[in-house]
Structure formats: structure tokens, C-alpha cells
């Protein structure tokens, strides 16, 4: 292959720039032109790209966010638009594409693969909600950001004997809640709908108080309920005056952790190698048994996502 494209789509995730940089360097060594398409699939449709070279990407490699920008594209959902786009890419000599993103981005990569255009999907999402991979790019940074915030909340809460509920991201997945709640020794973790048992949570809070702990912490996954909803129900049922906080986009901000820098580099290098060596029609990358592995994207998207429990 002489020309390969890259795009980042959906929510940004720390480590995306590391993957972009790794692909760019691999391309430079192999004499392959690397095109970075701006603003996700919209840039691919509009042919809005910039040529990526190591001196342009190196500065961004260890920064958060994505230097290519990201968006969600409604236009890409139209089959005719996709077909015309693939036809144009082939005429211009672009022979493969790397897509970095979450579930929606994967579905775009799947559509391109079905059209016979080789596409590699890299799991870039803080939610850790892509099936069949143990880890997604950005997750480790996100949970580190959450713990940093919870540690600050804990010291303030202990001064006033607060009961605090912290709502974390994850869409429909509870991985962020489970990992951070475990690390923070939370009194209750609501990672799945099965965990949303107000009586059981009340008992845990009362037990914690009986042990003379100065504050109580509940970590709540946004896919189960909002902090506002939980506070309203608990206050009404048990007479609490819960403090609440939805951490929001602070979880995906800042520079990537060591794990995500390394993971981005490894994913990027493997994605380039797969396309450059013409190893197949396309694939999804993931982590299996602590190694970067290729998976059939149809199988990934046809599988049910399971919560990834810490070190079990």
C-alpha cells in the first residue's frame, strides 16, 4: 500500500494521538503516505485531510484529545454516500483506513469492510465497552482522572461527615464505576442495574457509619441512573442529605497515562502493519491475554459486551 488514511470518530479518548503518531512514523519508514482525515467520518466524506508526517505528529503523541478532531456523522449512515466515498478513495490511491473510536466508529469501519475497503478499527473509548477486548484506549487514563477527583472529594467529605454520590461516565457499561469504586474503597458501587438496590445501599452506608468512618462514598455508573435521580430517591426514602457530583468530561481530559501511551503506540504499529502487509479484508484490534490481537469486526459487533472486572 502506498496511501493509508486515519480518522478519529465519536468521543475523544486519551491515547488517540499516540496511535496516530505511531502510524505516521511507521508510514515514514515504509515510504507510505499517511492522510489524516479531519473531524471523523465527515472529513472522509468531504475529502478534508492533511498529510501527516512525524514532525507534525510527534509533538501531539503524549497529549490528550485528538489532533485530527472528532465528530459523529449522520451523513455516513447513507449507503450511497459511503459507496461514492470508497470509489473516490480508490481513484486517489488510498488503499486502507484506520478508524480509532468506539461502538459507532466500529460500525462505520464494518460498513467499509463490507464494501471491500480494508479497514482496521482501534478501540478508542474511555468506556471500555467494546466486546472481546480486555482494554480500550483511554480507559486507564479516565479511571486515573476519576480517582484523582474522588481523592479530593474524600478529604472534603471527611471534614464534614458527608455522604457523597459520584456519577461517572461509561454509557451503558459499568467498568469505570467498578474499577474506580474498587480503588477508592467506596462504600457502595452501582456499576449495573442489579446493583441499584436502595435498601442494600442504605445498609452499607449505616454499617460504614457504625465503624466511625468520617464519610461515605457511592460511585454510580451513568448508564444506571444519574446522581440527581439517585439523590432524590435516597433522600426521600431514608431522609439523607446526599451530596452529589457528576464528573462529566473531566474524565476524558488531560494527557494519557503511561498505559494509554504504550497501548496507542502498539495499536497504531499493528494497524499499519496489518494494512501495509495486506493481511486481510479488515479487522478490529483488541487486547487478549495482555497482547494486541486481531479480531473479526463482525464477531466483535455481534457479541455482547461484558463488564471487565479488575484483575479477575
Our count of helices gives 11
Low-confidence residue ranges: none
Strand order of the largest sheet: 3-2-1-4-5-10-11
Q: How much of the sequence is in beta strands?
A: 15-25%
- How much helix, percentage-wise, in residues? 40-55%
Derived structural class: alpha/beta
Mean pLDDT: 96
Explain the overall architecture.
The protein has 312 residues and is an alpha/beta fold. It is built from 11 helices and 11 strands. It has helices at 16-30, 41-46, 54-57, 79-91, 103-114, 139-160, 175-183, 198-210, 227-238, 258-276, 297-301, and strands spanning 3-8, 33-37, 49-51, 96-101, 119-123, 163-168, 188-190, 216-221, 243-246, 282-288, 291-295. The strands form 2 sheets. A 7-stranded mixed β-sheet has the order 3-2-1-4-5-10-11, sandwiched between helices. Strand 10 (282-288) and strand 11 form a beta hairpin. It is elongated, with a radius of gyration of 21 Å. 48% of the residues are buried. The mean pLDDT is 96.
